[in-house]
Amino acid sequence: MRTPSLLVTRSCKAIHRLQQSAFASPVSALYRHQTISVLRNSSTVSCKDDRSYYITTPIFYVNASPHLGHLYSAVIADCLHRYKLLQGFNSKFATGTDEHGLKIQQAAEAAGKDPLTFCTDVSERFKHLFNRCNISYTDYIRTTEQRHHQAVKHFWSVLWNKGLIYKGSYEGWYSTQDESFLTALQVGDAVDSSGNEIKVSLESGHKVEWMKEENYMFRLSAFRSQLLDWLKGNPRAIQPEIFYQVVLKWLQEDLPDLSVSRQRSRLQWGIPVPGDAEQTIYVWLDALVNYLTVAGYPDIHNQWWNVAHHIVGKDILKFHAVYWPAFLLGAGLPLPQTIYVHSHWTVGGKKMSKSLGNVVDPLERSKQFTTDGMRYFLLRQGVPDSDSDYTDDKAFKLLNAELADSLGGLLNRCTAPALNPAQVYTAFCPQSFPSEQGGRAVGEDYHMLEAVKNLPAVVEQHYESMHVYKALEAISACVRQTNGFVQRHAPWKLERSDITDQRWLDTIIHVSLECLRMYGTLLQPVVPEISDKLLSRLGVQPDERGLADVNFLPKIRGLDCPFEGRVLGSDTGVLFTRLENLDRDKQNPKKTKKAKK
Ligand code: MSP
């Protein structure tokens, strides 16, 4: 029988060979992708190459300022990136701006600016928001950059040389707002704000116009069965499941060829088709290639391209889960590992839009709730499978309850000079809290320890499937249990002069600090500043904060605890200051006073 390590080495070599090989046909590219997946799954230990990870956000349109929904896409990606770093991966994280196309051209004209100046201004606003919100991207791509033009032109030439692009004519509906082509079945009647009858996209509600143009077409129809095979062979390629099912359904319907250029006379703000200056490359083909550009394409790009994961909102699923994989198959490139789809934030049950005046400004809110507060709220309340409704009140309540009262309260209790006058990571006494019952700990305490011990695995599973809210729910439940543990044993009532009481008191604090160390470590991807404050207060050094360092409560297993006896960090500041909801308090002064008591 072969040993597992031999099998792994062979699998790794085979994956490497497959990744390096050049493929001529779409079928062989698909075969390569599937074979790599099979080999990966058959390895019991991960290959060295597998320690690379590449995560992307959609690139954002610069026709308007960033709103809460944009920040949400970015925060999810940032959280996964930070989580992978904690796991010891070499992670690349790309975001940026999508700057070509008719609507940008029109927005620049309306602002009276030349398109590039206009794009630079708005792109900087996105960058500012992301920097302010600790979005730790490793690359910020703009589609107006030279490196991207080169990648797009190369990609186009590959498809052209394979006969996958042909000159034809397109006649049909087009939505400039969505930069999307629609069939008659996807269009409905509506009335605009001036009372004119118009046609709109049934999906987005945006206005559509009839378009008739000579342009280049991509042979999308040729890829239907390969896309189906890909999805059937990779049921976790699109997550959550409901969106996987949506894509399968699309692929069972008609899949006409796709127009991939516009006449230059109508669209100047874009990349010209190589060899035909009269045509501009379709903005979605241009935009999707950004993921390759960041990976290094057309030069060496395998290290990143073979481990690519995309975060996308549900409105842009078809572009990512149908067009993009078809383009990639056509170009003989591997397909993304996962497309994580999230739903939308609504306000008052309605999609955020300028015309409705319900756009939530993420920059202003991140000042109000703090950066970490904003991040925590979005990830704790945002559910990928369905839309979430935003209200300020929800944010106040959640952040005060979970960050200020529950987590902050627990830290306060364990570090309060009254209970911990020496300001140290107190000692654990095995007689008070033996590994089996018999000391002063009770059954519920053991249940709590079990839940905290299992937390990394639970959290990992939820982070990996982008159900960050479930990870946070699990952490929050454990924090409540730890508070319950302290409350149950009321260490402030113990008799300090009694040595056994003093040991039990120290043990209660030691166990609680160990729990806090666990929460601080696991929360780093979501609330990096709060976690840093928490771990620093516990005296946990920066190189002791990886997932591999967690090693929860070793003393109960008779092992050494490196933290025991250490002096606590000197920053005694509040972990998360309670937020005052001034608007609500103004409306309800009596209620607020009473609540404060
Ligand atoms: N430029 C394209 C993406 C090209 S990627 C190759 C685009 N840009 S966008 O600015 O309109 O949207 C970017 C992201 O923000 C998308 O994932 C979209 O779903 C997300 N959101 C926009 N509004 C949203 C909400 N109201 N709620 C949550 N996210 C939403 O599409």
From TrEMBL:
It is an enzyme of class 6 (ligase). Its EC number is 6.1.1.10. Keywords: Aminoacyl-tRNA synthetase, ATP-binding, Ligase, Mitochondrion, Nucleotide-binding, Protein biosynthesis, Transit peptide. The keyword Protein biosynthesis applies. SUPFAM superfamilies: Anticodon-binding domain of a subclass of class I aminoacyl-tRNA synthetases, Nucleotidylyl transferase. It is found in: Mitochondrion matrix. Residues 438-542 form the Methionyl-tRNA synthetase anticodon-binding domain. One of its GO terms (molecular function) is ATP binding. It catalyses: tRNA(Met) + L-methionine + ATP = L-methionyl-tRNA(Met) + AMP + diphosphate. Residues 53-414 form the Methionyl/Leucyl tRNA synthetase domain. GO terms for cellular component: mitochondrial matrix. Belongs to the class-I aminoacyl-tRNA synthetase family. PANTHER family: METHIONINE--TRNA LIGASE, MITOCHONDRIAL (PTHR43326:SF1), METHIONYL-TRNA SYNTHETASE (PTHR43326). This is Methionine--tRNA ligase, mitochondrial. It comes from Champsocephalus gunnari. The lineage of its organism: Eukaryota, Metazoa, Chordata, Craniata, Vertebrata.
